[in-house]
């Protein structure tokens, strides 16, 4: 785990945090507690992206000139770096514009296979009436709405694993809902609202027992603790660059190589084909079969720099520091009258909860809470966090969410707690 001096050194790697303090707030220190939505970028990431544009900018996989060769090498080196960060092979990493697109690539692969596209190798993805798709009650809309669409296109039933009052998955119900007719089990590794870290290996084993495909939303896990996707056994997974210190405009789809090669593509066009005539086209093997059109090359280079920064800092140490902050935040919020934590109120065992805490302040709308905190230099998220059904499950329309990261200090958590304690007195006086 970090000490205070090391966290301060890490914080100094993030130019925006210092710029805000010097230029935007007249010396007031920013407590940035919205990393669950988007993370700030260390200087090494900004420099990597700039260096690509200054020295290597060209179209990849297309040109015979030296600059194109260097751009392609940088692009594929980035794929290798990001693959290594999650324990994957290079052919198992597909670039997308974000995790939402990555999840849709999988979902609409099932739709296309069910419509008869993709040939014999795609038959494993064909589903129809009588089949079911299983998700959880804590899913982000990005891992919910695509499966609604698959159900609508194919006639499959959509089932939902419920969440307990304590904010954890009801695993007994999961075992009842996943059965021999289950085609897909799609679940979040860690909830962006509750902070709950789900038992991925147990869920994968449940799906495998019924020959179901697993799709993991890893957006909130890959940035915060070490994740080895092949070791987890998942078939597909998605995560986004901008939540793990990387650029916006890039996401990652992981898939086991043999499954990616069999899945029909969803986005089609240039750079993903072998032959084309006016009646049909043949597609390249993965990952290129899913990478139609001009790719986010500079963003991939920046994401690779982010992965290297996280790896050099140490994912185990990052996780330990965030767990420390989570305990501090949870304990403090529970001492404030009128504040209700949505999700697990304590860390049950190491690694089962993120430093992402959503809470409701009795009698005060989350947007008012957020504005009150913002005026004091504390950046948090407010709203339903793209998880409306989950909020309805807990009887609220919106929450305030504070999410810490590796650069968050104990003092910033304490400032949050002290300011939240003032909210009801200000609005309800």
UniProtKB/TrEMBL annotation:
It catalyses: (sulfur carrier)-H + L-cysteine = (sulfur carrier)-SH + L-alanine. One of its GO terms (biological process) is cysteine metabolic process. Its cofactor is pyridoxal 5'-phosphate. GO terms for molecular function: cysteine desulfurase activity; pyridoxal phosphate binding. Residues 32-416 form the Aminotransferase class V domain. Pfam families: Aminotran_5 (PF00266). InterPro entries: Aminotrans_V_dom (IPR000192), Aminotrans_V_PyrdxlP_BS (IPR020578), Cys_dSase_SufS (IPR010970), PyrdxlP-dep_Trfase (IPR015424), PyrdxlP-dep_Trfase_major (IPR015421), PyrdxlP-dep_Trfase_small (IPR015422). Its EC number is 2.8.1.7. Signal peptide: none annotated. Keywords: Pyridoxal phosphate, Transferase. Belongs to the class-V pyridoxal-phosphate-dependent aminotransferase family. Csd subfamily. NCBIfam families: sufS (TIGR01979). Catalyzes the removal of elemental sulfur and selenium atoms from L-cysteine, L-cystine, L-selenocysteine, and L-selenocystine to produce L-alanine. This is Cysteine desulfurase. It comes from Sediminivirga luteola. The lineage of its organism: Bacteria, Bacillati, Actinomycetota, Actinomycetes, Micrococcales.
């Amino acid at each position: 785990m970090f000490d205070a001096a090391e966290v301060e050194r890490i914080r100094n790697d993030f130019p925006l945090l210092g710029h805000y303090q010097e230029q935007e707030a007249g010396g007031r220190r920013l407590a940035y507690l919205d990393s669950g939505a988007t993370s700030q970028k260390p200087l090494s990431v900004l420099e990597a992206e700039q260096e690509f544009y200054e020295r290597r900018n060209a179209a990849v996989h297309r040109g015979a000139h030296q600059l194109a060769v260097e751009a392609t090498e940088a692009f594929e080196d980035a794929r290798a770096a990001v693959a290594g960060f999650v324990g994957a092979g290079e052919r198992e990493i597909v670039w997308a514009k974000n995790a939402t697109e990555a999840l849709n690539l999988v979902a609409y692969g099932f739709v296309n296979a069910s419509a008869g596209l993709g040939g014999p190798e795609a038959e494993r993805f064909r589903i129809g009436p009588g089949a079911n798709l299983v998700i959880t009650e804590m899913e982000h809309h990005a891992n919910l709405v695509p499966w609604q669409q698959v159900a609508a296109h194919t006639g499959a039933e959509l089932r939902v694993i419920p969440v307990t009052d304590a904010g954890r998955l009801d695993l007994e119900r999961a075992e009842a809902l996943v059965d021999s007719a289950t085609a897909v089990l799609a679940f979040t590794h860690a909830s962006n609202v509750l902070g709950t870290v789900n038992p991925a290996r147990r869920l994968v084993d449940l799906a495998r027992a019924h020959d179901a495909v697993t799709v993991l939303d890893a957006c909130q896990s890959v940035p915060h603790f070490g994740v080895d996707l092949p070791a987890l056994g998942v078939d597909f997974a998605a995560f986004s660059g901008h939540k793990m210190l990387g650029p916006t405009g890039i996401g990652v789809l992981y898939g086991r190589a043999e499954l990616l090669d069999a899945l029909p593509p969803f986005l089609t066009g240039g750079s993903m084909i072998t032959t084309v005539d006016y009646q049909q086209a043949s597609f390249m093997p993965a990952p290129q079969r899913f990478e139609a059109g001009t790719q986010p090359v500079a963003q991939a280079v920046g994401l690779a720099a982010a992965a290297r920064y996280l790896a050099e800092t140490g994912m185990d140490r990052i996780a330990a520091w965030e767990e420390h902050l989570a305990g501090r935040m949870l304990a403090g919020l529970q001492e404030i009258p009128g504040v209700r934590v949505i999700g697990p109120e304590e860390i049950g065992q190491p690694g089962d909860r993120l430093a992402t805490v959503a809470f409701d302040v009795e009698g005060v709308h989350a947007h008012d809470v957020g504005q009150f905190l913002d005026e004091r230099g504390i950046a948090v998220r407010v709203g339903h966090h793209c998880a409306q059904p989950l909020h309805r499950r807990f009887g609220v329309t919106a929450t305030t969410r504070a999410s810490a990261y590796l650069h968050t200090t104990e003092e910033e958590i304490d400032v949050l707690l002290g300011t939240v304690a003032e909210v009801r007195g200000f609005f309800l006086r």
